[in-house]
Amino acid sequence: MFRKISLGSLGLTVGSILTVIGFIAYATGNATLNLAGLFYGVPILLGGLALKAAELKPTPYSVPTSPEIISLREQQATSTQNQLRQDVTRFRYGQEAHLDESLEKIGLSPTDEERPELIGLRETATDGAYTLILEFASPFISLEQWQNKQEKIEKFFGPNIKAKITQSEEQFIDLALIKQN
Questions:
Q1: Is residue 36 one of the residues assigned to a domain?
Q2: Number of domains, the chain
Q3: Positive/negative CA dihedral, 61, 117, 179, 79
Q4: DSSP secondary structure string, 120-154?
Q5: Are residues 44 and 119 in the same domain?
């Protein structure tokens, strides 16, 4: 639940409230509340602004996950699949894009401008195996370049992961991470 809360928005809200209370207390001559409001409110407000500026929003699910797939995930998902799903579906701070470092290590991010962008994810079953599908907008990296990195992707996200790379539409790549026994 807390993964879905923006710390930047929380800091802005709390900091704004405390700062306003501090100014009102100053105007009414309440020195104690004035100090508490201003000395806590302004730094929290500035911290909220800084977090908001460095915020990376969670990646949305393109298709809601059914209860059957959730049950399959609980039984079969690897720790890497779970960590990956949890990381991209929460607010992140100080990163350019989701999976930017991973794509760089795999060799699919020659520059920041050419880096594929994670735009969605979905969970499904492939021949009875839990599958996490990452959906990328990839206008600068072709399907062939992705397929040339398939073995490296499997090693990076493995063990017990098989990668299947497909092109859903022109300039859009689906990377399916399938649980293997």
A1: yes
A2: 2
A3: negative
A4: EEEEEEETTEEEEEEEEE-SSS-HHHHHHTHHHHH
A5: no
Mean pLDDT of 54-73: 88
What percent of the chain is modeled with pLDDT above 70? Answer: 98
DSSP H helices in 92-142: 100-106
pLDDT of residue 59: 87
pLDDT in tens, 13-52: 999 999 998 889 888 888 888 888 888 999 999 999 998 8
- At 2, the pLDDT band (50, 70, 90 cuts) reads low
Beta bridge partners of 19: none
Structural domain containing residue 45: 2-53
Residue 99 pairs with which residues in a beta bridge? none
User: Do 42 and 78 have their domain in common?
Assistant: no
On whether residue 61 sits in a domain, the answer given is no
Does any domain span residue 110? yes
Closest CA to 146 of 114, 181, 120: 114
| CB-based burial label for 53 (10 Å; 0-12, 13-18, 19+) | exposed
Measured between its terminal Cα atoms, the distance across the chain in Å is 31
Amino acid at 164: K
3-state SS, residue 53: helix
